[in-house]
Amino acid sequence: MSDFPASVDIFCKVIDHYGDAGVCWRLARQMAVDDGKKVRLFIDDVETLRRIVPEPDKRVEIVRWGRDLVYGGAADLVIEAFACDLPDQVLEVMGRQPEAPVWVDLEYLTAEEWPLSCHAVPSVHPSTGLKKTLFFPGFDVKTGGLIRENDLIARRNVFQGDVTVQNQWRLDHKLPEIDKNCLDLSLFSYKTAPIEAFFKEISGLERPVRVFYPVPDGFGVEKRGNLTIYRIPFVKQEDYDYLLWTCDANFVRGEDSFVRAQYAGRPMIWNIYVQEDEAHFTKLDAFLTLYRAAFSQESREGLAKCFEVWNQRGQDLEGVWLDFLKSLPELDAGAKEWADRLCSETSLTERLYAFCREIKS
Ligand code: TRH
């Protein structure tokens, strides 16, 4: 029982962008490679996954999820990612198993309070009688936690502590070496973020600032005043951590890059995925309430303003980005404290396995 679940099936539908595939791959890889589980990832858009994971580890079996999917038998644990609706044939097979699999619906991450009362709550599926449980990632101990590999922070510390290794990584990705006079930022945001206004303002910083900007295709270096923008092709998902770890601050979006930037222990600005009726602002506020508390009283306000401006809430405030860059040394301590706090909690897989074992006991 201690290694239950021995096998895991993850079902993923790509709605848009890279996050659905990115989160599911990260989870699948960790369960197969780090935890030795037999993992199958059923995904409807393998091409999107390949853009960020061009050479997936063979220990995860990737199955194209099309209409012709034939599901032979279910794993011990079936993860329905982001309520993607399992096909009837899959449900039938799950229902026919001598021992029904543990079935969880892995939901999107939010720092709001309402998931606390829904997390790990089962419901009975009407036609099959199977039990399905909502599993909410989150920041609170009463949620499903956050995906985090066991060796992540040790690897981060080694990389961040070694300038030579960082410079080699940068060289491999056609990025300039570390220069103490320069500030380096990574940028990954939606088109709705006020990117041009941001570039314009930070080009006036007294010291050089370099923005490392992965875009799906293309490469180019552009200079504007004291700002240099390095457009680079998307890096592999495993390399994306190194990009975050080697920068002084990171601009991230969605769900997966947002979490990874927090583990980097460097200040980050989040571009949230826009939802109907501005529901995303409630989500943004919930996170900011937790995150800002890790920072000094003096720097909190400025950080919160950056989140607002970047997410186009209220007007563009002049000077907000210059203030942000100038306060990076102070913000750095808060970002580290926040990362340490996240890492002092159990990870999502630890909580998920514990939950599965509890159900089976
Ligand atoms: O791409 P995202 O915006 O994805 C999602 C989806 O839109 C999804 O539908 C939505 O619900 C969710 O956001 C909240 O952002 P995210 O989640 O950060 O995913 C990006 C993935 O791409 C992540 O795994 C990191 C990876 N990535 C790379 O591998 N290389 C890169 O160069 C970059 C910039 C990202």
Q: What can be said about this structure in brief?
A:
This protein has 361 residues and is an alpha/beta fold.
In words, what does this structure look like?
Helix 9 links the parallel strand 12 (249-253) and strand 13. With 361 residues, this protein is of the alpha/beta class. The model has no long low-confidence stretch (mean pLDDT 96). It has 2 domains: 7-146 and 346-360, Rossmann fold (3-Layer(aba) Sandwich), CATH 3.40.50; 152-343, Rossmann fold, CATH 3.40.50. The protein is globular, with a radius of gyration of 21 Å. The strands form 2 sheets. A 7-stranded mixed sheet has the order 3-2-1-4-5-7-6, covered by helices on one side. It is built from 14 helices and 13 strands. Helix 11 packs across helix 12 (320-326). The site of 2'-deoxy-thymidine-beta-L-rhamnose has 23 residues, from helix 1, helix 8 and helix 9.
